[in-house]
Amino acid sequence: MSRFSRRSDDTTPGYEDNAALRGFGGDEPADAPRAQPKRIRPKPKPLKWRRAPWFGLAFIALVAGVLNALGVGKPHPASSSPPPAPLVATPSSHAAVPAVVAGWQSVAGRDGSYAYDVPPNWEPAPATQHGWAGFKLITSAFLGKDFCAQATLGGAGVTTEPLTDPEAAVRKAATDLSAAAYGGTTQVTPGPAAQVTKADGSAIPARIVVADVVPAETGECAAKHALVAALAFADGSGGSGVVVAYADSDRGGPSVREDLERIVRSYRFVPAADRSTTTPPTTTYR
Predict the structure, then answer these.
(1) Strand 114-118's sheet: what is its strand order?
(2) Sign of the C-alpha dihedral computed for residues 145, 119, 130 and 180 taken in this order
(3) Most CB within 10 Å of its CB: which of 7, 113, 189, 231?
(4) CA–CA distance, 268 with 4 (Å, rounded to integer)
(5) What is the DSSP letter of 248?
(6) Which helix (H) or strand (E) element contains residue 100?
(7) 61 three-class SS
(8) What is the mean pLDDT of residues 234-259?
(9) Contact 198, 188 (CB under 8 A)
(10) Buried b (16+ CB within 10 A) or exposed e, 259-286
(11) In the structure, what pLDDT confidence band is assigned to residue 8 with cuts at 50, 70 and 90?
(12) Element (H or E) spanning 142, and its range?
């Protein structure tokens, strides 16, 4: 094709009427390249918050109101409620009876119907039950409690044996306690004659034995030698009542043998007139 084309209604080849063209007039080639139109981008729309600033202000006010309602940023006044009351522990009452051994303290059982005495360096624990597998004692007392951070130097308590013969009952109790508490070897010897005073003042015969024990356990805290004293009497119901006292003889003091025998011999029944009730002082925990 020719560079210049002819339109069917043109009279002059190769040119167009410039009055019909863009520009200011003048001759231009009919097929001269024309300027490319510029792409006109639409003007960006303003953000909504710019168009409506009241929305942001309202949102900020709402958040501030919520925080204010929750007390954020406000100083909290001191509480007007009183502090919690301290815990007060009130121990239960227990029976108290006078000691019959001068300078000693009594250990009363149940409602004070029976008791025995222990030296002042012992700790009465009448509400405590203690013992070993197969051998339990009630109405307890202890010597050197928590000695060596794990045991005691001695103890005492009351039990029963299903034997009507006090002699057999006291030997069985002394042997069983020695085996349970110490193990090792035991030699039982009879003690002096004894009796138990009843609440009406009458007396019933009793038997005493003392067991010499060489404990099986060794070590710094183990006893090298121990003593067990026991007293038994017929309880009138087909069995025997027994009170026992035991201690490390090498660390229980110079009079440990005499003390153990006096402990079991002090066992008695207490008349109602000699019984009273005592309540230890309360303890406050803050």
Answers:
(1) 105-109, 114-118, 268-269
(2) positive
(3) 231
(4) 150
(5) E
(6) none
(7) helix
(8) 91
(9) no
(10) bbbbbbbbbbbbeeeebeeeeeeeeeee
(11) very low
(12) strand 135-143
Percent with pLDDT over 90 in the chain = 51
Q: Give the pLDDT confidence score for residue 93 in this predicted structure.
A: 75
- Mean pLDDT, rounded, of the chain: 79
Q: Average pLDDT, stretch 223-247?
A: 95
223, 144 in Cβ contact below 8 A? no
Residues 6+ apart with CB under 8 A from 127: 92, 94
- Residues forming beta bridges with residue 140, ordered by sequence position: 125
pLDDT band at 260 (very low <50, low <70, confident <90, very high): very high
The phi and psi torsions of 59 (rounded to 5 degrees) equal -65, -45
The residue behind tokens 């953000």 is 47
Q: Does residue 90 come out as left (phi exceeding 0), alpha (psi in the -120 to 50 range) or beta?
A: beta
Q: Which residues contact 28 (CB under 8 A, 6 or more apart)?
A: 16, 18, 21
Residue with tokens 């060794």: 218
Q: Which two tokens stand for residue 232?
A: 């038994």
> Can you tell me the distance from the alpha carbon of 158 to that of 178, in angstroms, rounded to the nearest whole number?
15
* Nearest Cα to Cα of residue 212 among 260, 161, 141, 144: 260
Q: For the segment 184-226, what is each residue's pLDDT rounded down to a tens digit?
A: 999 999 988 899 999 999 999 999 999 999 999 888 888 899 9
Helix or strand run (H / E) with residue 173: helix 166-181
Residues 124, 106 contacting (CB under 8 angstroms): yes
